[in-house]
Design goal:
The chain is built from 8 helices and 6 strands. Helix 1 packs across helix 6 and helix 4 crosses helix 7. It is elongated and about 65 Å long.
Amino acid sequence: MGTIGRSQGLETVIRATAAAREHGVRIETRIVGYGADVARLRALNTALGSPVRLLDRVQPNEVFGHYDWADTTVVALRDWEPFKWTVPSKLYELMATGKHITAIVDGEAAALVRESNSGDVVPPGDASAVADLWGRLSRDRALVASRDGGRAWIARNAEYDVIGEQYRVLLETEVERNRSS
């Protein structure tokens, strides 16, 4: 859901869906949005028998309908060293939904998913690991149960009031430190 660029490595999602289906997993996958990588992903999807529904961007009021439809949501970044220090803003949005997250990420983003118990982490680019995860999720529906850990983490760390208060304290501390110097 959102911008579809090369940074996300969404070819992994398409390959994982195709692999899961080959192993008998009943799965429906949607990629919703638009961006620089759409044409390449459409070509790959077609070459693999169209395992994924690629949908154009949607209006803001339609976003949560797609989240409600999903058993697991996906946040993905390709395997690139700088992405180990990157936490996609989409991850915070998905955590706030309470939905299970398939996190195809490494580094800080992976640690956040694990720490908050928001879902499962697989290595970037590893379509086989994603397909295996989705197979487990389809066999054990309890694994995709609501994830309140993500919501709780957001409430503690990313709510505007909390961030505002943390920023106020930081500024006051710096002002006092500079006055003392």
